[in-house]
Amino acid sequence: MYTHMGKEISFLAFHPDSEPDEAYITEDMRDKAYNICREFLSGTWKSISSRDMVFKSVSGGLSNLLYYCSLPETHTPLYGEPSQVLMRMYGQIPSEGSDTTVTESVICTLLSERNLGPKLYGVFPGGRLEEYIPARALTLQQLKDPEISLLISKKLARVHVLQAPLVKEPTWLFNNMNRWLKYARTIKVDTVPIKPNHGCQAAHS
């Protein structure tokens, strides 16, 4: 659930809550983003150069790299193509064609078509192009608001009743818990001796 200018956005959004930032931008990534936007969005995007495109990183992704791509102010859309998009590059992505990749692509497509998520403009190896939503995430205090929780639950209910061509067995949670547990067991933490707090001992003596 996201809000924009005090108004509730009518679908489930997946972007982070921060403003685009020009830091951490490489020319290779800019060129890659430009070629992807040019191929999938066409229209005015084909008449600008890589340097013309507004390109900024967006913080807030958990494992994905997020980038804001926009037409310059001097250019406007010709055929209804978006003037700005979010490019999502998968972070810890399994091999292409894996169950995780296919499932996520199907879910995002369904949510986009049902107006329950950002519009999907393109799916490519290692990522996707989606609608950019200039919104902010709810704060922890807002998430504890019963009225907001009710709105979120109603929207999630619309997602849960969708007929999706996906495996119906509830294996995702337990598979991930087992994977995280195996990973946690490989982490070695140095034991740090705890020095006694003499001030506390004196206070209690």
Automatic annotation (TrEMBL):
<dbReference type="Pfam" id="PF01633">
    <property type="entry name" value="Choline_kinase"/>
</dbReference>
<keyword id="KW-0444">Lipid biosynthesis</keyword>
<comment type="similarity">
    <text>Belongs to the choline/ethanolamine kinase family.</text>
</comment>
<keyword id="KW-0594">Phospholipid biosynthesis</keyword>
<keyword id="KW-0808">Transferase</keyword>
<dbReference type="GO" id="GO:0006646">
    <property type="term" value="P:phosphatidylethanolamine biosynthetic process"/>
</dbReference>
<keyword id="KW-1208">Phospholipid metabolism</keyword>
<dbReference type="GO" id="GO:0005737">
    <property type="term" value="C:cytoplasm"/>
</dbReference>
<dbReference type="GO" id="GO:0004103">
    <property type="term" value="F:choline kinase activity"/>
</dbReference>
<protein>
    <submittedName>
        <fullName>Putative choline kinase</fullName>
    </submittedName>
</protein>
<keyword id="KW-0443">Lipid metabolism</keyword>
<dbReference type="GO" id="GO:0004305">
    <property type="term" value="F:ethanolamine kinase activity"/>
</dbReference>
<keyword id="KW-0418">Kinase</keyword>
<dbReference type="InterPro" id="IPR011009">
    <property type="entry name" value="Kinase-like_dom_sf"/>
</dbReference>
